[in-house]
Amino acid sequence: MLSFDIRSLESKAEAVDGELPPTDPVWVEGDPLPQGPIRVTGRLSAAGAGRFYFSGRMAGTATGECRRCLTDVTSEVDIDAHLIFAEEELDAEGEESDAYPFDPSERLLDLRPAIREEWLLAAPAFPLCREDCRGLCPQCGADLNEDPQHTHAASDPRWDALRDATGGAAGDPPISS
């Protein structure tokens, strides 16, 4: 359960033990969804008038594509979360606060939007299948991890005139006289 009665929170803290599935409507199109549900555990308590504090953990598995070779990658995400929920969206100076706003006229405090945001910040934006990933060949798209000796015999025809003038290969250093 990730929604709590605001009136009961004002008198006593609540244990948080729930899951946010990837099928939940809180996710927006284009979000990197977790592979399965995000497990959320912790404690939610009052932190002054119109303010609540969540302290706990979020854990799940993020999926994505390797930024270099485009293979599927899974990453475990397990973070400590410390969140403040406040009635106001602006602090006393009129600036945005770090607190997640909620409507005090609502009966329930919904943690799901804050969990979504924290997940998006914690999940790797540019995952790698491994640190030494060589990526894809820019000419043909071959996976350079599978064939580290991959080369192309064809040379760029723009270098033909230079190769003919020097009598060497296009990659050879120029001949000086």
Automatic annotation (TrEMBL):
Annotated spans, Disordered: 144-177
Name listed for the protein in its UniProt record: DUF177 domain-containing protein
Originating species: Roseisolibacter agri
Biased composition (Basic and acidic residues): 147-163
One Pfam family here: YceD
InterPro entries: YceD
